[in-house]
């Protein structure tokens, strides 16, 4: 199974994805530092919200096989700069989260566009809360 490092803004759903991947109870807790799970590395949203913390992401990504850029589809903005994926010499995928909260298909299309511009090579759409789309992500990680 691939180890994935999640990067994305505060509240985008990275920790929830880690908990789901590891069969843990979903419990909200603000991530304050980089946290290592068996198959995942969780990072605080601040790593992507402050450019000077990109280095923390880069260093932490050394232990991962793939980078997962996490974009909340209910947010109208994205912190991922264009071609952000080129910073990592590893595969980069995109994960659109909270899809059950999308008001229109346009919300999802916008989130996908942010991730595409960032350079994600594959994009998954998930709702961790409603258990939709997450199996495709798991299957990819198990490939
Ligand atoms: N409705 C809905 N809420 C979700 C989903 N995934 C996560 N959440 C909620 O979004 C909130 C933030 O989720 P986290 O996983 O803690 O976010 P994070 O990306 O780890 O945030 P930081 O640790 O602050 O960087 C929590 O209250 C979650 O329950 C989802 O698919 N649908
Ligand atoms: Mg977190």
Automatic annotation (TrEMBL):
The keyword Nucleotide-binding applies. GO terms for molecular function: ATP binding. It comes from the Bacteria. One of its GO terms (biological process) is biogenic amine metabolic process. Keywords: Nucleotide-binding. Belongs to the EutP/PduV family. PANTHER family: PROTEIN YOEF. This is Propanediol utilization protein PduV. It comes from Paenibacillus dendritiformis C454.
């Amino acid at each position: 199974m691939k180890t994935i490092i999640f990067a994305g803004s505060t509240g985008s759903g990275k920790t929830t994805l880690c908990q789901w991947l590891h069969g843990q109870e979903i419990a909200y807790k603000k991530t304050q530092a980089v946290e290592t799970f068996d198959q995942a590395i969780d990072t605080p949203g601040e790593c992507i919200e402050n450019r000077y913390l990109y280095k923390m992401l880069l260093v932490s990504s050394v232990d991962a096989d793939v980078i997962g850029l996490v974009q909340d589809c209910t947010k109208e903005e994205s912190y991922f700069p264009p071609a952000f994926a080129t910073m990592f010499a590893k595969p980069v995928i995109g994960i659109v989260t909270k899809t059950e909260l999308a008001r229109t298909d346009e919300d999802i299309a916008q989130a996908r566009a942010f991730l595409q511009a960032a350079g994600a090579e594959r994009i998954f759409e998930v709702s961790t809360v409603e258990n939709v789309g997450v199996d495709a992500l798991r299957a990819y990680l198990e490939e």
